[in-house]
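In response to reviewer comment 3 from the previous cycle, which asked for concrete evidence that the modeling workflow produces usable outputs, we include below a single protein chain processed end to end. The sequence was submitted unchanged, and the resulting structure tokens are shown without manual editing.
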Amino acid sequence: MTSDMPETPTKPSSKTAAAGGEKDIVTRLADAGEDALQRLAELPGGQRALGAFNDLRARVDDLGKKVRGIDVLEARIVKLEKQVAELKRPRSSSSSRRSTPRKPAA
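The workflow returned the following structure tokens.
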């Protein structure tokens, strides 16, 4: 069944067009990155370089995790410093009794 009305192509909305274009850019960038990695791996010593880069990435990830833990440690240090400062304060005269009595002066 054909109709006498000509078919008009429907235009995608601007949001879908932008999303499609954005996906296209991301896909193109991913493809270019993959191609670059393949060319790098084909170079003499390229496999070693890729291995070193992967090791570096893993080490940077580990360092990031450790650095995030420093905030917790700093909070603990502040708390402990306050406790030490309280222990160093001189006590009242009633608690500063001598354990041995004074000898009378002769």
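The chain is about 70% helix and 0% strand. We consider this sufficient to address the reviewer's concern, and the full set will be provided in the supplementary archive.
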